[in-house]
Amino acid sequence: MKKLQSKHKKLLALLLFLPGTILFLTFISQTTAPEDIKHPGQYIYLGYKDPDVGCARCHGKTGRGSWLSDGPDIRDSIRKEGRDRVREYILHGKGEGDDAMPGFADKLTEEEVEQVLEYITYWEKIDSLVQARESANGMQEDQNAQRR
Fold first, then answer.
1. What is the pLDDT of residues 22-41, one digit of tens each?
2. What is the DSSP letter of 53?
3. Which of 9, 14, 80, 136 pairs with 65 at a CA distance of 20 to 30 A?
4. What integer pLDDT is reported at residue 34 of this predicted model?
5. Which residues, 6 or more positions from 55, have their beta carbon under 8 angstroms from its beta carbon?
6. In sequence order, what are the residues at sequence separation of 6 or more whose Cβ sits closer than 8 angstroms to the Cβ of residue 116?
7. Long-range contacts of range 71-75, CB-CB < 8 Å, 24 or more positions apart?
């Protein structure tokens, strides 16, 4: 009798565990893009065009890099490296070995590469605005301190 109850408990636990696992996996592997994605470069970057081309897998959703992989922060890569060099990285890859970035020339059109570059450039603009605002706030605080 106890063996039967033990088997029932295990079966019940399994039946409760499987649907939860399926729901979780469905949630994290969303294949349709959310409605708030408006920029075609973001659509490609996040991997909705092709999961194998999703830049976010290595560079994170916001371009800051990912703790899951060795992808570096790329938010200011165009300013530092130049648009043409970043285009070459996207098309032909960068580095060697296990942590190298693969090229995507066979998976992305030239137009799609340009869209990804525009999306990356968007982050640089936002970071510049944030820095300008922080600088202006700091100057205002200095002026207020001098008046006291």
1. 544 444 455 576 778 888 99
2. G
3. 136
4. 79
5. 44, 45, 46, 47, 71, 74, 116
6. 41, 44, 45, 55, 90, 108
7. 71/101, 74/120, 75/120, 75/123, 75/124, 75/127
pLDDT at residue number 126? 63
Element (H, E) at 115: helix 110-147
Write the burial class of residue 87 (CB in 10 Å: 0-12 exposed, 13-18 middle, 19+ buried): middle
E-strand spans in 10-130? none
Give, for 59, the enclosing helix (H) or strand (E): helix 56-59
The residues spanned by each domain of the chain are 35-147
CA–CA separation, 33 and 43 (whole Å): 7
Closest CA to 112 of 93, 84, 87: 87
pTM: 0.64
Q: What is the CATH number of domain 35-147?
A: 1.10.760.10
* 3-class secondary structure, 94: strand
Question: Which amino acid is present at 42?
Answer: Q
- Which parts of the chain have pLDDT scores under 50? 23-28
